[in-house]
Amino acid sequence: MIQKILIANRGEIALRIMRSCKEMGIRTVAVYSDVDRTSRHVAYADEAICIGSALASESYLNIEKIINASKQFNADAIHPGYGFLSENAHFARRCKEEGILFIGPDAECIESMGDKISARQNMIKAGVPVVPGTAEDLQPKDLIRLCRKIGLPVIIKATAGGGGKGMRLVRDEKELQEAYYSAKSEAKASFGNDIVYIEKYIESPHHIEIQLLGDTHGNVIHLFDRECSVQRRHQKIVEESPSPFIDEKTRLKMGQIAVKAAKAIGYAGAGTIEFLVDDKMNYYFLEMNARLQVEHPVTEEVLGVDLVKEQIHIANGKKLRFTQREILQRGHAIECRICAEDAQNNFTPSPGIICHIQSPQGIGVRIDSHIYDGYEVPVHYDPMLGKLIVWATTREYALERMRRVLYEYKITGIKTNIDYLRKIIDTRDFVKGNYTTHFIEENSKKLQQDGKQIEELEDIAVIAAYIDYLVNNNNPIEGEHQNQADNRPISRWRSFGKQKSILRF
Prior knowledge:
505 residues, Dna Ligase, domain 1
């Protein structure tokens, strides 16, 4: 049985994994880069080791350093989290060679589903509906012929892609050549692999994913659906479960198809099958994520299942602890990704020192995060600070709760996307559950309205309250002189509108 796990990741996901390990009585080892010395996941772990510089290639992506750290601390297993090496078949294979359990699918499964062309081929063999397109390396000479066969619009995609990189939408044949070479160039730079393929572009689709659990004994179950259509540049921002769009019949069919797909490749571990669903409820396989997902908490909240604990249970060689009939959705959960970025400045990352955090509380509120007062957000990694999740008995109540907690959540010292998330939750299409992957584009004007005025009013209200407190308690503000007649403090508040306030408290 696993007694000690090294978490080959950082930040909020490393901390989230460690919490489940703590509940299971499993010791943890943290790895960190030199700029992550003060990260909360380092302090929380039972043991920790610095494995390199801020460059991910020298630390979190360095397979041999991670393997050596695991051996040095006698870890039984490695949990990769998500991102970094989580879907790296070579890493999974090296763990096996060193006698270390890799908490995830085996290298062969990762290879078969990590390459999108290979994944399409596997799904076609398994009878899973896929988006019309090619299942081989796309060549320049075939562009026009395949485009006309599939029908415009089409999308050119990197086989090793993710996060919208190496992807180009084509609506006119004249754009094909430029889009093809542009996609290949970006794919090569991002993934070291410039192979691309082409598929039909589904207009106004929903991005629906099905969570899966499979054990090493051939058992696979689905854990229902997540709606992930609120995306900016193909990066998810808000997720919810269950989807407000698909009906119960479609939900069950998609779950069955996802199980069929996982069984076809002998999948073991936690994973996700992603689908595109059109307005007529036709669904098509998009890709498989052979790892834990960022948005896994919404599934945990509506099912009452800890997915990390189940991953560890499966890695121990045990059978699934649930049957399909025992898994039932209850209530509704919504997740917002909190990021250190300036939404008013093209979402530029906003690294720096966090001065103060006011975290929301109350029933049905969960925050998966690693930040704290005084924490310095590094410039070297993804700007996500954590996830804010709410659960309620209905979607209407969950929306009300998310509005409230986004209002309560305050992070000062850096820019965040919290105000942007508030606008998303209040947008009519989102409230109605009537939105697609084009939601951000269709509502861009409203979402990009300047929120600075609201922030300034909130700041002024806080400053005014503080000054009022000082005046009423006869405490002069630092730097002021006293009125000689009645000994009352003379406030500089009168000139507030004429000069920038530097009041700190």
